[in-house]
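@channel sequence for tomorrow's demo:
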Amino acid sequence: MPIRYWAAIAALGCLWGTSFPLNALVLQELGPKSIAAFRMALGALGCWGYLALSGRLHRFTVRQMAELTAFGIFTFTLPYLFFAHALQHIASGMTGIINAATPALTVAVSHYWPGGERATLLKTLGVIAGGAGIVLLSLPLIDGGQNTALWAMALALCAPLTGAISINIVPRFRDMDKVALVAMALTGGALAVLPFALWTENVPSGLSLSGLASLSMLGFVNTAAAFIVLYGLLPKVGTANVSVSTLIAPPVSLALGIWLLGEPLLSEHLAGMTVILFGLILIDGRLLQKRRQGRVL
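structure tokens (generated this afternoon):
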């Protein structure tokens, strides 16, 4: 595979790894619902702009708009809310590691999903490893009697679970331009949560330069640009290669949380991350195959 594709995959992993410390920074100035609403609104704006410039604007029927709004709430609104609320009580590095459980949860959900892919023994072991990693992450919270943080961790785990379910819903829209799908889903998701954000968290009076920069990066770069790159890569490199980005995001999130936010680094964090990443390797399976196909660099 050409080196430029590997570079794009690495960039995706780094971008998604920065999402959690960026969320934590913006949380110092905005409430979780406002962050979710503005991130999706900016992400939608970026996607619509790209579609307009590339001449790919899509017309939606009323039914499609309703379906994609529901899809957007499930795929974007809920996970963004789960993570934003969880970040009020647990470190951003930990949420980044928890998000790496998405492939393991996807395997588990797909196994029971109507028409989904059945789990192999290797993938099942990967799911078990993912669960073990989550348990390791929770040990310091259990020992410290931090019940609120444990609930926050469970809430954060709901985000990759909804992501795993949404991955199994995507084939329903297989004939639709994927960037247009994301644009409409983000628009619907943002409109759904915005009234609740304004009602419970009031209209933001203003953001600092760093807060505005962090929120803009979350919306335009980590959401719009990341999904545009993702769906541009998928037809060229395949899902298996793109999934390598999930191995990159957790250590990036952990490192940035320590550097930018002064979050503590515990041995349980490293152990949990290692076990979860090992589970991802098992689920991918390629490193354990005896024969490897030649790759053109």
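heads up for whoever presents: DSSP finds eleven helices and no strands in the chain.
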